[in-house]
């Protein structure tokens, strides 16, 4: 670990000298003298593939004009995969370009479950850490979920500024943190999207005024439960419409950021990426895909992805080749003229050729997904092999009481939350079990197992997995409270110290 940490520090110190020599042209890297681009990543939490228009949306009221505009002025990638169908490992891979089995984040930190020792290792290099030596101002606003102890905080992972909740907005103690101090406890969640947006606009303005290239990472809280929308977007006269209210406010946020970038005249110098960390919870829409969050059907793993950069990414284009969120890290570094770390395996690749349409082929021979400590899925071309069961429909009825639901005291949000009857994905098809194979070009809803018809494909896909599993690390089980969740009290950064494991 110490050797790796030293390599990390050495790499970060020399990044400034690693700017590419070639001037930027058609998506190639910048030179030291060229103006470096700005990067904005807007990450929704638990947003389904079909929760926005243009990705299979079928629900009335989910209108997303700003996201429609973002896509019409850029590119939609229709088959982008996260490496895990839930929060923390997905975020770790996005920021490091490495699968969870490499960066070590395979579980979610959960303070109210007593899982306090998990976080992104200090030896890992984030996008922010890689960009800082190249002169970038860096800011994270929103959900971190890569560790809530001080050594894991965003300000220790390359971000100059942080404002947000350090884990999911339903995990007690829900408290807003500014840099390394508690800003608000408890949190009035209906104004979260608005406050995050205002903070983001302020950072963009200040970076522009200072003349600095910037990296803004905006991982919104919504539409993760508890759903919450501000008064301007909340429609209590239609109580079953709260999810749509939340989506409309997220869309408003995108519109404000677009307008800000345009008003400052930095439109042509700014790449904006919009995506989700995994599939939807109850109330969302998978766009016709099977499953939901926490399951390795495509409804849990495939996410909407939009990239916009006027003059660099052709407007209104659509690319269908499978890619991964692991590709964001190397793509941004290449565009900023920053060399990739040389002391570790980077699983992602530069997908700028896919974003521009210069190369429309699949950037990977195969992609993986995990669930917990297990390698769960392999995707190659049109084929998807489930190494383990992708999971069945959770056994919950509408009388289910969410232990992390709004209580008006520590979780402050609208009380009318989505119910289990609002299952977001398709349910029909072959029973979930290990080693089932699907041709997603012909069967995107994963209904018909074709493993017996294509044993050669199964063998090839399993060989991909076996190659990785040959050096699979062992992971310790996380510490957690006995007896389930606790109503952990917040108001300070080291709240977890008073709770015995």
Structure described in brief:
With 501 residues, the protein is α/β, with parallel strands linked by helices. It is 23% helix and 15% strand.
Give me some keywords for this one.
501 residues, alpha/beta, Alkaline Phosphatase, subunit A, eleven-stranded mixed β-sheet, four-stranded antiparallel β-sheet, globular
Helix/strand structural class: alpha/beta
The CATH superfamily title of the domain at 36-364: Alkaline Phosphatase, subunit A
Radius of gyration: 21 Å
Task: Fill in the CATH topology of the domain at 36-364.
Answer: Alkaline Phosphatase, subunit A
Tell me the helix content.
10-25%
Order of helices and strands: HEHEHHHEEEEHEHEHEEEHHEEEEH
Estimated share of beta-strand residues: 15-25%
Uncertain regions: pLDDT < 50 for 5+ in a row? 16-33
Secondary structure: number of strands: 15
Major sheet summary line: 11 strands, mixed
Determine and state the CATH class of the domain at 36-364.
Alpha Beta
Cα separation of the termini:
25 Å
The backbone outline, from C-alpha atoms, is globular
Number of helices: 11
Overview of this structure, please?
With 501 residues, this protein is α/β, with parallel strands linked by helices. It has a domain at 36-364: 3-Layer(aba) Sandwich (Alkaline Phosphatase, subunit A). Helix content is 23%, strand content 15%. It is built from eleven helices and 15 strands. It has helices spanning 2-14, 65-72, 87-96, 100-103, 127-131, 192-210, 242-263, 298-301, 328-336, 352-356, 455-469, and strands at 38-44, 75-81, 137-141, 161-165, 176-178, 181-184, 214-219, 270-276, 302-308, 317-319, 323-324, 367-371, 374-380, 383-386, 436-439. The strands form two sheets. Strands 1, 2, 3, 4, 5, 6, 7, 8, 9, 10 and 11 form an eleven-stranded mixed beta sheet that branches. Strands 12-13-14-15 form a four-stranded antiparallel beta sheet, with helices on one face. A hairpin with a 2-residue loop joins strand 12 (367-371) and strand 13. The radius of gyration is 21 Å and the shape is globular.
């Amino acid at each position: 670990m110490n050797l790796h940490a030293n390599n990390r520090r050495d790499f970060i110190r020399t990044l400034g000298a690693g700017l590419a020599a070639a001037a930027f042209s058609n998506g190639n890297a910048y030179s030291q003298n060229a103006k470096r681009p700005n990067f904005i990543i807007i990450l929704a939490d638990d947003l389904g593939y079909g929760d926005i228009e243009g990705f299979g949306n079928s629900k009335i009221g989910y209108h997303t004009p700003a996201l429609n505009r973002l896509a019409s002025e850029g590119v939609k990638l229709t088959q982008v995969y996260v490496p895990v169908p839930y929060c923390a490992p997905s975020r770790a891979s996005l920021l490091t370009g490495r699968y969870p089995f490499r960066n070590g984040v395979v579980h979610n930190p959960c303070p109210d479950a007593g899982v306090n020792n998990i976080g992104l290792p200090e030896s890992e290099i984030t996008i922010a850490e890689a960009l800082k030596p190249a002169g970038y101002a860096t800011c994270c606003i929103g959900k971190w979920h890569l560790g809530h102890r001080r050594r894991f905080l965003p300000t220790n992972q390359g971000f100059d500024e942080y404002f947000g909740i350090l884990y999911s907005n339903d995990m007690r103690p829900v408290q807003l943190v500014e840099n390394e101090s508690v800003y608000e406890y408890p949190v009035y969640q209906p104004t979260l999207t608005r406050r995050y947006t205002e903070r983001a606009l302020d950072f963009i303005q200040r970076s522009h005024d200072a003349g600095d290239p910037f990296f803004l990472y905006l991982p919104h809280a919504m539409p993760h439960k508890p759903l919450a929308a501000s008064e301007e977007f909340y429609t209590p006269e239609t109580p079953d419409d709260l999810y749509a209210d939340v989506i409309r406010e997220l869309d408003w946020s995108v519109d404000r950021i677009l307008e800000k970038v345009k008003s400052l005249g930095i439109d042509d110098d700014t790449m904006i990426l919009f995506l989700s960390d995994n599939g939807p919870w109850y109330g969302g829409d998978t766009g016709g895909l099977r499953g939901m969050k926490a399951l390795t059907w495509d409804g849990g793993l495939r996410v909407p992805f939009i990239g916009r950069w006027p003059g660099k990414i052709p407007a209104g284009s659509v690319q269908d080749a499978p890619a991964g969120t692991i590709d964001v890290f190397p793509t941004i570094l290449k565009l900023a003229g920053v060399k990739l770390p040389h002391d570790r395996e980077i699983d992602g690749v530069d997908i700028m050729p896919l974003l521009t349409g210069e190369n429309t082929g699949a950037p990977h021979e195969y992609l993986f997904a995990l669930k917990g400590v297990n390698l769960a899925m392999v995707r190659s071309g049109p084929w998807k092999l489930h190494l383990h069961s992708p999971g069945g429909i959770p056994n919950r009825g509408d009388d289910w009481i969410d232990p992390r639901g709004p209580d008006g005291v520590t979780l402050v949000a609208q009380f009318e939350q989505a119910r289990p009857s609002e299952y977001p994905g398709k349910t029909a098809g072959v029973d979930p079990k290990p080693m089932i194979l699907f041709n997603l070009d012909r069967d995107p809803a994963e209904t018909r197992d074709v493993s017996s018809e294509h044993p050669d494909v199964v063998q090839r896909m399993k060989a991909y997995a076996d190659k990785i599993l040959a050096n699979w690390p062992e992971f310790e089980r996380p510490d957690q409270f006995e007896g389930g969740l606790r109503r952990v009290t917040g108001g300070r950064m080291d709240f977890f110290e008073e709770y015995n494991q």
